[in-house]
Amino acid sequence: MRAFLLIALFGFLFGLSGAQTETKPTKPAPPPPAESKPAPKPRETTLEFAQEGERWWWAEDGKGNPLNPPQKTGDASVNVKLPESAETLWVYDAKSGNLAQLKVAELKEKTELKSDSWTHVARLQVNVKAQDKPVASALVSLTDATGGTRTQVLEPSAEGILVFERVPLGKVEVAARYGDEQKASQETTLKAERELRVPIIELALSGTVATLEPTKGAGETEAKAEETPQVSRIGAIVMFVIALALAVGVIYFLIRLATQKPQQLGEAMSKLGVELPQVATSGAGGSAGSAAPSAPPQPDLPPLETAGVPPTATVAPPTVVATGPATRIVATQGPHAGQAFEINADLLTIGREAIHPIALVNDMGVSRNHAQITRQGDQTLIEDLGSTNGTYVNGVRISAPTPIKPGDTLQLGASLFRVE
Questions:
Q1: Contacts from 140-146 at CB under 8 Å and sequence distance 24+?
Q2: Looking at residue 21, what DSSP letter applies?
Q3: What is the DSSP letter of 12?
Q4: Cα(71)–Cα(56) distance, rounded to whole angstroms?
Q5: CA-to-CA distance for 355 and 200, rounded, in angstroms?
Q6: pTM score, whole prediction
Q7: Each residue's pLDDT tens digit, 283-338
Q8: Rounded distance, CA 356 to CA 369, Å?
Q9: Of 293, 292, 309, 313, whose CA–CA distance to 301 is shortest?
Q10: Does residue 188 sit in helix, strand or coil?
């Protein structure tokens, strides 16, 4: 028994010493750091257009996030550097209001933009109204030519106007849900070549629907400077020069007529009710037979009535006084030059939105609700509705309802009108 215990003790001590002398495994050395690769350079392409013009371009990633602010160019070709993450290149033509959507993977060293490259309308305006008044609320959806549908909520603050962006060219359908499950829709075709840069769809609703009254311009958002229109200043200078030249001509003619033909001048002024002092024709002794030496014969001058000038000098050019009420206004200057608007109702509103009877959609100096024309019996009046740039009658800015008659001039934004 004692021998067995000794053998067991010896085995335990031998095992313990072997565990202490066992070598530990070494850890592998860490791999050398990988060399950093240089960032890839942006890709480049040259956009070539048919002609010069104002255009803008920007790049977006696969989720539609813009990667750079829009860059402007006016040249027929422009070099574009695209970031590595760019997947779509958008190009906007300011003149037509169209967009070109280009896939970055399909771009070449030189990319030529032809007529069929413009595939989208940048902005599409939808006017929702009922009984010729803006609709207060509705749910409006637009289905484009690709089958995509987008929906917007028409709120009262929008005043019946919604704007859809980046709409593909082709057939579109606008539908509205309103009131007690009522529906209305309108179809149209968007073309690359059109009259309006921002096309407008008029969606008329019927039945019971809440509408808004035309505002007085209190919510105008235009931030244009309050100054006299440039067209008005230039016209005033030209008319002043004409009036000054006419006055000088009249004065010169009267002086010449007075020195050469005093008798004719006296007769002409007498017809006008003006008596001139008599000039003595006798000599110093007062005898009738001693007449003053006569001046050399002068060529006859035309009578004052037919001389082609007014009988008295005036500061302003002569105006023709027309009779009768105003029946229409005709644009003589500005974006709507040559266009006539009939005054055929007792109330006509004027503004930049297409919902107005007198719509000046191309004049950015005109407020959305600018002015109104009313008829009261035989009198026609124009009133400014709190516009930003004001309304002018014969060059004077008005602040209250002002009568207008044929021959007057009206100034709204950059548009000048003649009342007929």
A1: 140/174, 140/175, 140/176, 140/203, 141/174, 141/175, 141/176, 142/167, 142/172, 142/173, 142/174, 143/172, 143/173, 143/175, 144/168, 144/170, 144/172, 145/169, 145/170, 145/171, 145/172, 145/190, 146/170
A2: H
A3: H
A4: 5
A5: 10
A6: 0.45
A7: 434 443 444 444 444 444 344 333 333 433 333 444 444 567 889 999 999 999 99
A8: 8
A9: 309
A10: strand
